[in-house]
Every structure is written in structure tokens, then in C-alpha cells.
Amino acid sequence: MQPIAGCRVQVLVVDPVPSITLALSVRLRQLGYEVTRAHTLGAARACVEDQAFDVVVVDLWAWPDAFEFCDSLVEVGAQRPIIVTTAYPGSAEVRFYRNACAGFADGYFEKPFSIDALANRVSELLEHGEQS
Predict the structure, then answer these.
(1) What is the pTM of this model?
(2) Which of 12, 21, 80, 116 is the most buried (most CB within 10 A)?
(3) CB distance 91 to 48 below 8 Å
(4) 46: how many CB neighbours lie within 10 A of its CB?
(5) Rounded Cα distance, 34 and 100, in Å
């Protein structure tokens, strides 16, 4: 998907691992998206307060805070896709939050994930206007 001329699609990528946010942001920029990276939930909250994002990609590393962050995005009422990632798919906490996220998450990726697959999911969501 190519962004509409003059319209910059804004993507927020939240993950504590700088190499992941860097790799994903490079790929998304290649697709023509504007990307903001945050490595803490505090930074992510500040980003959301300052700017509107079309898509949010967030890792569930800091549960339950990461879940609450996602839930707050939904409560604000903004209709934006949310993609969640995790490095701990087998843990009881992540299984619980994954099930809870099913109500609002538009994508779920377990680490290690393909940067291209996640970037393609972002494009699909934007292209088709899919919402939970």
C-alpha cells in the first residue's frame, strides 16, 4: 500500500528493544510511513498525548501496564488498529493478556517475528480499514 499523496500515515512502535524498533521503523519507512519509536510505556503515553497515530504496534513486555496502555487507546475512542507482540507466548500472564487483547488487537505476533510480515499486516490494516 502506498500512502495517499500529501497524507503521511503515522505509526507508533513501542518495544523495549531498540534493535526491534529500528528494524521495524526502517521497513515501515521504506513503505512510505512516518514512524515514531518509543522504548518505554511512559514515552509511548507521551507520544499518544502529543500526536495522533494511524496504527500502534506495542510489545506486551510490561504487563499489565502494556495491556492497560492498549486499553487506554481504545477508551480514548480513536479508531486505530493496534498490533501486539510478545517474546513470552507461553507464560500464563501473556496467555491471559492475549485473550484479553483479542477484543481490540488487530494483529498478534510472537517473537521472533518476521519484520516483513508485521509491516505487511500494518499495510493490510491501513489498506482495508480493518478495525476490531
Answers:
(1) 0.85
(2) 12
(3) no
(4) 12
(5) 29
**Can you tell me the distance from the alpha carbon of 14 to that of 58, in angstroms, rounded to the nearest whole number?**
5
pLDDT digits (tens, 9 = 90+) for 23-47: 999 999 999 999 999 999 999 999 9
Helix (H) and strand (E) counts in the chain: 5, 5
Cell representation of residue 57: 504496534
Query: Residue type at 128?
Result: H
Sign of CA dihedral 14, 19, 23, 29: positive
Burial 71-95 (b: 16+ CB within 10 A, else e): bebeeeeeebbbbbbbbbeeeeebe
